[in-house]
Automatic annotation (TrEMBL):
This is Cyclase family protein. One of its GO terms (molecular function) is arylformamidase activity. Belongs to the Cyclase 1 superfamily. It comes from Cacopsylla melanoneura. Residues 1-25 form the signal peptide. InterPro entries: KFase/CYL, KFase_sf. GO terms for biological process: L-tryptophan catabolic process to kynurenine. Keywords: Signal.
């Protein structure tokens, strides 16, 4: 696994956790006004290809994908439909473990201010 692909996994997982917490209404905070990370003008693709060969950390659980429906037209309007199911361990690639992962009283990922996870050159 390359450093670039490891970084891609980390930021993908970070993004998913950052989005998931507000969706579930947990640990909502007012946005920081002094954030060093702001004013993005274009989206950044943080996706990463995961397959059966992807390295996972010390577990027998591997990535698995099952094709449920390869393609099907659903009546009455004959809309195209395809579905897959996949599973993978949480320790895949570079990722962020919350303190809770190692301590039952530790904080969750949503409790970590994003400002602590970024370094902007010349700002700190």
């Amino acid at each position: 696994m390359t450093v670039r692909s490891s970084k891609a996994i980390f930021f993908t997982v970070l993004t998913l956790f950052s989005v998931a917490a507000p969706i579930h209404g947990e640990n909502l905070r007012e946005p920081e006004t002094k954030s060093p990370v702001k004013n993005f003008t274009k989206p950044v693709d943080l996706s990463y290809n995961v397959d059966e060969e992807t390295t996972v950390w010390d577990t027998n659980v591997k990535y698995k994908r099952d094709k449920i429906i390869a393609g099907h037209y659903i009546p009455p309007d004959n809309h195209w439909y395809a579905e897959n199911v996949f599973s993978l361990p949480e320790h895949i690639g570079t990722h962020l473990d919350a303190p809770y992962h190692f301590n039952e009283k530790g904080g969750k990922v949503a409790d970590i201010p994003l400002e602590l996870l970024f370094h902007v050159e010349g700002k700190g």
